[in-house]
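tl;dr need the bound structure. longer version: we got a ligand (heme C) that a collaborator sent over and nobodys looked at where it sits. i said id run it. heres the input, straight from their email, havent touched it
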Amino acid sequence: MKIFRASGRQTGKLATLGGLLLAIGVMTTLVSYSVTLYRLFCSVTGAGGTTQRVAADTAKVSARTVTVFFDTDVAPGLPWRFVPVQRQTVVHLGEEVPVFFEAENTSDRDIVGHATFNVTPDKAGIYFKKIECFCFTEERLAAHQKVEMPVEFFVDPAIADNPSTRDVEQITLSYTFFESKRGDGAQDLARFDAAPDPALGEKLFASQCSGCHEMARAKIGPPLGGVIGRPAGSVAGYPYSPALAQSGITWSTGTLDKWLAAPQADVPGSLMPMAVSDAAVRRDIIAYLSRADGS
Ligand code: HEC
């Protein structure tokens, strides 16, 4: 019995070792152009046809924050432009944060790409959890196509419990895209542009709007529950600027998009002190507002 169990364990180890060797083999093939020590999480899981996304975070959001920087690169010879939409963001530990990257195929041919990422400092890597990310699969970008891709992540609060990572205040997430030789089964990157995502919009709202807006009651700004179909500046008791109250606007997907892109230009004299320059972010927030009914 003992012997059987021991050999069972041995087999398990061998299987793990085999898996590791396979993974290393895949990595070597994929990044043979580079000597950088990538964490090939994405590529390996993508190549194996499986994904290893973490489940949505259930850990408590902590008061502590870290600053996350975004860095991008394309492998030599890949005619893609690939940039982060935001250079950095401050996040609470445990807070789920969506960020965006923009990719454009500047060539005349469809190309399948594959992203690798790494996290620095190295020791923070295991605490950086991705929920949704374009790097899990082979991605096709049609000739001259441009897309925006979301990455959702959170930093595990456990980073603050580990004595060797407790001091980490800045984390950099770097992505490199390289051309994939095996295009079969690639997904179209355009899927990210296809449909508005209200669930993502809810998170974006939480991080960009909720400081001033709630659905059901006035805060610094007016309540936004049921805003679609409502005349601008019409919630009784909220001290609107005369400009907004007299704008004649009725909120719809279209008028909200214009307003959020540049409130001051849309309604001169209005008082909302921020704008959302990113079209995909506006689209998802508006999708969320279209659903949120203020209850
Ligand atoms: C720093 C505070 C602040 C932030 C952040 C903010 N808003 Fe506002 N918002 C305001 C204020 C103040 C007004 C009222 C403006 C006026 O009266 O001219 C307003 C008005 C609005 C209105 C018009 C509502 C109505 O009843 O006519 C909408 C829609 C809106 N905001 C959406 C958003 C969204 C979506 C976000 C996040 C992307 C956001 N706001 C972020 C302060 C803010």
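gonna send this back to them w/ a short note. Residues 228 and 251 are 5 Å apart (CA to CA).
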